[in-house]
Amino acid sequence: MAVVFVNYRVQEQPGYAALLHRELADRFGADAVFLAAQSIRPGDNYVREIFANLRDCEIVLAVMGKNWAATLDADDFDWVHQELTTAFARGVRVVPVLVEDADLPAESSLPADIAALAHCQYVKLRHYSVDADLAQIAGHLTAMTPALVDRRTVADGQPHLFRPIHAPHCDIAVIPGDILRVRSIDMWVNSENTDLRMARVTEFSISAVIRYWGAERDSSGRVRRDVIATELASRAGPHRPVAPGTVVVTGAGALAETNNVRHILHVAAVQGEPGAGFMPVRDIGWCVTNTLVQATALAGSDTHLRSVLFPLLGTGVGRAALQPTTRTMLRAILDFLVREPNTPLRLIAILAYTERDRAVLRQVLRELPVAAVAE
């Protein structure tokens, strides 16, 4: 469930609510911020989704324009009113977000069940200082709840080890920070699209990092031979796009020397849609399972292969929600280890690129049957 719930009136200032949601989702992750128009999927029960998120959130942002109070009595059933009533009844912190020249309504103009709104400290959101205002709101939220971590902050520190209670033969590791700092994992997983066409080297993604640093480069850093992408294209051949969850193995190119990587396991975990960009495939768990099957086969034929590193599949350009993706991946790993007690793998690692990634990984691991290994 979301940490922050954005309350707004569709007929008034919906653009500011969407802008606020986009900024906060970019900082804290889409799963940390709830906006009905963006967060409810087609076919979901919207009443259940709205009130479930209201019950579990820590902060409600009430976006209020100049005519906000005047419309409270205009509707037979007012969602804005009902959401705020629920928030105050639960003791949730409510922060008015006053848009442009809006004022905080007087207590006398409010229904009794939300009269407390008149005494809540507000923040401002104005067009002429929008960037500064958004940054200030994000800063306030970070200070008010430790559950929000700016996901753009690169994680730092030592790996954390966990031992599955029902499969103690293979540990799970959370490795924080940049993938290029990882030098002790035999096989890296690359979250690829169903066309198996690697990202351009100028893009910000795991695929781009693996492609560039695995290539042969001249003294100025320009790619002379696109080693991994060329091998991937050759192995995929004319059979593209491939089915979601397909895994293709290539060498590691120059990463073999710089990072001690033996193989790259490219898994089709995202797919493109015209006009919509990339999005995660339906079953990320299947992607994890297929990758571990392939990693086990490789390790079975080479005693030097005992570890594999996953990124959080689809949470980059694929825009997958972080927490459910993390939970799905970890459950798939545990299920695989229970079913395959004879796997030669001894370490399955997950990259936590940002502090938010690390926080969510550790939170989900606390819910699962694993024990932290003393460091």
According to CATH, the homologous superfamily of the largest domain is Leucine Aminopeptidase, subunit E, domain 1
Which residue ranges are poorly predicted, with pLDDT under 50 across at least 5 consecutive positions? none
Percentage of residues in DSSP E strands: 15-25%
Average pLDDT rating: 91
> Briefly, what CATH class of the largest domain?
Alpha Beta
Rg over CA atoms: 24 Å
Main sheet, how many strands, which sense, barrel? 9 strands, mixed
Description:
- This protein folds into two domains: 4-144, Rossmann fold; 160-372, Leucine Aminopeptidase, subunit E, domain 1 (3-Layer(aba) Sandwich).
- Helix content is 35%, strand content 21%.
- It is elongated.
- With 375 residues, it is an alpha/beta fold.
- Helix 9 packs across helix 10 (322-339) and helix 10 (322-339) crosses helix 11.
- The longest helix has 18 residues, at 284-301.
- The chain contains eleven helices and 16 strands.
Task: Considering the chains and any ligands shown, give keywords for the structure.
five-stranded parallel beta sheet; 375 residues; 11 helices; nine-stranded mixed beta sheet; Leucine Aminopeptidase, subunit E, domain 1; alpha/beta; Rossmann fold
What's the quick description here?
With 375 residues, this protein is of the alpha/beta class. It is built from 11 helices and 16 strands. It has 2 domains: 4-144, Rossmann fold (3-Layer(aba) Sandwich), CATH 3.40.50.10140; 160-372, Leucine Aminopeptidase, subunit E, domain 1, CATH 3.40.220.
